[in-house]
Structures are given as structure tokens and as C-alpha cells.
Write a structure and sequence with these properties.
Length: about 220
Amino acid sequence: MTDETKLTGLGSVLRIQAVLVAIALVAGLAIATVHEWTRPMVMAQRGGQLGEAALSVMPGAEHYRIYTRDADGIPRLSGDDDRPELFIGFDARGRAVGAAIVASGMGYADTIELVFGLHPELDRLTGMRVVAARETPGIGTVITDDAGWVESFTRIQLPFDGQGQLQELRVRDNARLEAGEVDAITGATVSVFAVTRIINRGLAEWLPILREEFDQLAGGRRG
């Protein structure tokens, strides 16, 4: 075999190897692209009913990341078997547009589970949706059926004192939403107080964490 023949054969092998490497790179890029494209849909499916509620209380959110907390109370990305505790919502450009907190507690007749939204500036609510409740029909169920009352949670400002410390939301007749007040509903007092208490507890647990870590949880892309 001549040197020229050897060189020709080596060149063919190198070309084949280059083609194989190129195919592998393209395939890897395609897999990564498909994974990133479908990830929000997979995450949305994982979120289930809570995820649907989370999107409804985060204006502009099209997909989200789901977080839970470890034994030390530190947020981490939720696994398949974890119960969602926090959603960070993102718009179509990947910018964080808010957070949604999952919270629960006793109502008049049974446990109420709800999701409420927070503006990315963490200074006001952006919505509330009851996910599960078995309250007295026609009375306690106004917390889900009274559209005006539910909508009011999109406009409630969080109350802070002079030192910037969060104060609890309060139930009041003719509530001033800008002062952190929740409107009372005649005949459904217990359920209204329960929802307010549940949100206050969720805020107490999560607002200090979000003040420290929102940008990190959002990947540094605040809307």
C-alpha cells in the first residue's frame, strides 16, 4: 500500500469521524432545545391544580418554577414526589413576574387550601384562589363564589410599619385595600377570617425568605 493510499484512507476515516461528531453535537443540541422548550409544559403538568391556581394569581405569568422547602426550611426546586409550596412565575421572555404561595388552615367546616400571589416587588397581593374547601353551602362558599370579593385580593397592599416590618392583614367592613384590609362578608365571617389568617401565616413564613432570595429563585431575571 502506497503512502498516498494510506493518506487517502486516513482522510476518509477522519471525515467519517468528523461527520459522526457533528451528528452527535446536532443531536445533543436538539435534545437540549426540546428539553428546554417542553420544560415549562412539564412543570405546568406537575403543578396540577395548584399550578393552574398559581398562574391565575400571577398576572403575566406563562410558566413557573416550583419550589418546596427542605428540613431546614431552605427553598429548593420541587421534585416529582414533593408537595409544591411556592411558585415563581415567568412571562414569555423569561422574566419573573411574581410569586404564588400555597397555604392552608382550618375554615368553618374543614381545611381550606388556597394559593395567593405576590407582586415581584413584594409589596402587594396580586390575587387569591381557593383550591380546596368544604365550607357551609351558601355561606362559607362565598370565598369562592363571590367574584368581587375574590377579585379584591388583586389590589390589597401589604401593610408595613415605620421600620418596614410586615403587619397582618385585617378584616374590616368597607375595607381599605390600600391599607391591607380584607373586606368582611356578612354571614361568612368565620370563612373570611380563616382565609385572612391563612394568608397572614403564609406571608409570615415566606416573605422573609423571598426578600432575601427572590432574585436567586427567579434566576436573576425580575420583570
